[in-house]
Amino acid sequence: MGLVDYHTHTALCGHATGTVEEYIEAAIAKGLSEIGFSDHAPLPEGLRKGITMHDGQTEEYLASIVSQISRYKGRIAVRTGFEVDFPLHDTFDQKYFTDPRIDYLIGSCHFIDGWAFDHPDFIDGFSKRDIDDIYSRYYAILKDLISSGIFHIVGHFDLVKKFGHRAKKNFSKEIAALFNAARHSISVEINTAGLRKPVEEMYPSEDIVALLFSLNVPVTLGSDAHSPDEVGHAFSSAVEMLKKAGYRKISAFEKRRRFDITL
Ligand SMILES: [Zn+2]
Ligand SMILES: [Zn+2]
């Protein structure tokens, strides 16, 4: 069976290129069995420019994905999702938490107390705070994200390392505690976009993947593609890392129900 790529963006976010069809065709060309769209859920005015769609565009977005499902039936499964910022903003209507058209929701943290820590324009924030405090605050947000029970997938688990800033402290204990607090099972994506960023490694790192396996945390795959040529990027390395850690299956989602795909 082929693999899934559940983390892709569309031109609606303002910083991605290519049409929905081009993404799907790229996924077919890569031999994937599923492609999921997870464009950024709308952020409030003042935060969203060039980052997310407007809150009036969610239906247009959903329609653009849903219309492809039957068109590509038999060739590839097309899944519908959102990448939702946590803490939540009221510009993303909570009706989408249970919308029957949506296969999964990715919960992601891009802001620590209002600081867009993964945005190159605000990188100086790393020199203004203690690095372990930053990591500690980041994982505290992930803890709430995971325990909220809203999400099916945690996005780019250790994104805070994006520009190469490493914690001094070992956060294994805090990471294990995130999943003890979870009311529902949640999958962690192996997001290959980190390979294309200054840190030059996947999210999460190999040692965290090993820890997740020991905790029985399910995993899935996402490229975080912002253009069709990034679909399925470095998935063979991601699968290799997963197998090395002991994983033999990944999660897939249909209508918010998880099923497993054998690696
Ligand atoms: Zn993201
Ligand atoms: Zn993303």
In brief:
This protein has 263 residues and is an alpha/beta fold. Helix content is 28%, strand content 17%. The protein has a single domain, classed as Metal-dependent hydrolases (TIM Barrel), CATH 3.20.20.
Descriptive overview:
This protein has 263 residues and is an alpha/beta fold. It has one domain: Metal-dependent hydrolases (TIM Barrel). The chain is built from 7 helices and 9 strands, in the order βαβαββααβαβαβαββ. The chain has helices at 20-29, 58-71, 125-128, 131-147, 172-180, 206-214, 235-245, and strands spanning 4-5, 34-40, 77-85, 104-108, 153-154, 187-191, 219-222, 249-254, 257-262. Helix 4 packs parallel to helix 5 (172-180) and helix 6 (206-214) packs across helix 7 (235-245). The structure holds zinc ion (2 copies).
Tally the beta strands. Answer: 9
Give the low-pLDDT segments: none
Whole-number average pLDDT?
Answer: 95
Tally of individual helices: 7
End-to-end distance = 8 Å
The name of the CATH superfamily reads Metal-dependent hydrolases
> Beta-strand percentage?
15-25%
Bound heterogens, unique: zinc ion
Second CATH tier, the architecture: Alpha-Beta Barrel
CATH topology: TIM Barrel
Q: What is the N-to-C order of secondary-structure elements (H for helix, E for strand)?
A: EHEHEEHHEHEHEHEE
The total domain count is: 1
Give me the Rg, rounded. Answer: 17 Å
Question: Order of strands side by side in the largest beta sheet?
Answer: 1-2-3-4-5-6-7
Q: Class, according to the CATH hierarchy?
A: Alpha Beta
Q: Tell me about the biggest sheet?
A: 7 strands, parallel
- 3D shape: globular
Percentage of residues in helical conformation: 25-40%
By secondary-structure content and strand pairing, the structural class works out as alpha/beta
